[in-house]
Specification:
single chain, mainly beta, Immunoglobulin-like, eight-stranded mixed sheet, 51 strands, Neural/epithelial_adhesion, disulfide bond, Ig-like_dom_sf, cell adhesion
């Protein structure tokens, strides 16, 4: 028998493409549609009846024309990487492969980045955008003069590179403003741009508008919450790039905490003003009563008031609180964007205080008098008049009454006996405390006598007399002073002068010249007239010649001349007549030539 074995040592069995035919003592192996894979050493083995074998070999060579297999075009690479442009070309015998770029064989290009590898692929080290183009892969079988080629497009993809025209943007909130953020990117192919905020993709809606292939992001109706970083992301098949731009939103100052406070006298108070805004506003306090201002770190001259603050919050501390600290306080928050002001009120509670310093009153039986108790208190106080433990007025009494007018509680007393005189108590109470003030109702008396009566000026008909007021007015005001006196003739009073005066000075007129007079003074109050002072005696001046008159005149029409006489001292008696003397006066005139 005769058997055939393929180059792999496998016994060949007839099939559709490979057929073994026996022709007597001969055997034929036929291979249809032979290809390169069929090449190799084939073995023919003959075996006789005794099992002895002999064999012979046949070398099969298959010549293949130039063939390009699975050529891919374009072939894409990332800029900066080492590229290998693949060109699979086969033939039998093996082809000679060369590469051309811009009609020039790459091995002749003075750039050591280009090399043809053992597998006939083209290697380009650190490929860049300028290497992009059409490369020709050319195969030759010189023994047959066969040549063929394939053009392969090489594309170099460039990773995105973002260009931010501005790294930060400023806007002001709550003014209806809109702002546009810009982001441009280079790269090949052109990158796709997207925006992110807080890790979330920004999509176009009422708030955001995207234009220019997403290179422009417009944020409408800026609010404080829009502040912060925005991420621009650029992506293509070569990679991606991202950069951050920051939106700073300025917010007008807004006071968010300020309330009225209440404290008590001599206690402590803390006024708090908190404001928000961007940038953080500075806070200033102003006391309305005197216009004094306080900023962070300030202290009042007396050290009682101090301002402390941090990051938009200010506290005004007051210790040893005084009543003068009460009232309106203005808090102003200001920044370069604007300002905001609000007011609060500090209410100081204090125990009752009594306004009037008069605690002693005088009256007499049958004379009604009002004793006033005026009270200041916060909160308002309840006020009572007491005598001992009794609250006034006592039932079934008509000469004691109380009534209110404003902040005053009036005690009206119409004394009927000595028992109505003495001490009375005004008591005022609120939740801070109780205070009382004692008043005394004394019995009034007539004034004591004036003293020190003396004559200051004398003339023929007048005398100016002064005196010292009484040391005691008797408990009630002096209404006026009563003077009494008259002229003395042969040691007795022949006439009387009586006069009411309000001051410690009296001018006596219509007196007789060269006459002796006496005068005394008494003080009068509501209770009555007191005793007279000691008598003062004086004598008027005698009559004398009048002093020369003072005259002046002016000419009138014709030969008339009007003469005016100024009134002068008459010497103590009426002027009866004026004697006028006049004469002509000649005037000599010297003329010189």
């Amino acid at each position: 028998s005769i058997d055939w074995y393929n180059p792999q040592g496998e016994k060949i069995v007839s099939g559709q493409r490979v057929v073994v035919q026996k022709e007597g003592v001969r055997s034929r192996l036929t291979i249809y549609n032979a290809n390169v894979e069929d090449a190799g050493i084939y073995r023919c083995q003959a075996t006789d009846a005794k099992g002895q074998t002999q064999e012979a070999t046949v070398v099969l060579e298959i010549y293949q024309k130039l063939t390009f297999r699975d050529i891919v075009s374009p072939q894409e690479f990332r800029q900066g990487e080492d590229a290998e442009v693949v060109c699979r070309v086969t033939s039998s015998p093996a082809p000679v492969v060369s590469w051309l770029y811009r009609n020039e064989e790459v091995t002749t290009i003075p750039d050591n980045r280009f090399a043809v590898l053992a597998n006939n692929n083209l290697q380009i080290l650190n490929i860049n955008k300028s290497d992009e183009g059409v490369y020709r892969c050319e195969g030759r079988v010189e023994a047959r003069g066969e040549i063929d080629f394939r053009d392969i497009i090489v594309i170099v993809n460039v990773p995105p590179a973002i260009i931010l025209l501005q790294k930060s943007f400023n806007a002001t909130a709550d003014r209806g403003e809109a702002i546009t953020l810009f982001c441009r990117a280079t790269g090949s192919p052109p990158p796709e741009i997207s925006w992110y905020r807080n890790g979330k993709l920004i999509e176009e809606n009422e708030k955001y508008v995207l234009r220019g292939s997403n290179t422009q992001l417009t944020i409408r109706d800026i609010k404080n919450i829009d502040a912060g970083p925005y991420i621009c992301n650029a992506k293509n098949k070569a990679g991606n790039d991202k950069k951050q731009t920051f939106l700073q939103v300025f917010v007008q100052p807004q006071i968010i905490q300020l309330k009225n406070e209440t404290t008590f006298e001599n206690g402590k108070a803390t006024l708090i003003c908190e404001a928000e805004g961007e940038p953080v506003p500075e806070i200033t306090w102003k006391r309305a009563i005197d216009g004094m201002t306080f900023s962070e770190g300030d202290k009042s001259p007396d050290g009682r008031i101090e301002v402390k603050g941090q990051h938009g919050k200010s506290s005004l501390h007051i210790k040893d609180v005084k009543l003068s600290d009460s009232g309106r306080y203005d808090c102003e928050a200001a920044s370069r964007i604007g300002g905001h002001q609000k007011s609060m009120y500090l209410d100081i509670e204090y125990a009752p205080t009594f306004v009037s310093n008069q605690t002693v009153y005088y009256s007499w039986e049958g004379n009604p008098i009002n004793i006033s108790c005026e009270v200041l208190a916060n909160p308002s106080a309840s006020v009572q008049w007491k005598r001992g433990k009794l609250v006034l007025p006592v039932k079934n009494t008509t000469h004691l009454k109380t009534y209110s007018t404003g902040r005053k509680l009036i005690l009206e007393i119409a004394p009927t006996s000595d028992s109505d005189f003495g001490r009375y108590n005004c008591t005022a109470t609120n939740r801070i405390g109780t205070r009382y003030q004692e008043y005394t109702l004394g019995q009034a008396d007539v004034p004591s006598n004036p003293y020190g009566v003396r004559v200051l000026e004398l003339s023929q008909t007048t005398a100016k007399v002064s005196f010292n007021k009484p040391d005691s007015h008797g408990g009630v005001p002096i209404h006026h002073y009563q003077t009494a006196g008259g002229s003395l003739s042969v040691g007795r009073c022949t006439s009387t002068v009586s006069k009411w005066i309000a001051t410690a000075m009296v001018v006596l007129s219509n007196l007789e010249p060269n006459t002796t007079y006496e005068i005394k003074v008494a003080a009068v109050n509501g209770k009555g007239q007191g005793e007279y002072s000691k008598i003062e005696i004086f004598q008027t001046l005698p009559v004398r010649e009048p002093s020369p008159p003072s005259i002046h005149g002016q000419p009138e029409s014709g030969k008339s001349f009007k003469l005016s006489i100024t009134k002068q001292d008459d010497g103590g008696a009426p002027i009866l007549e004026y004697i006028v003397k006049y004469r002509s006066v000649s005037i000599s005139v010297n003329i010189c030539f």
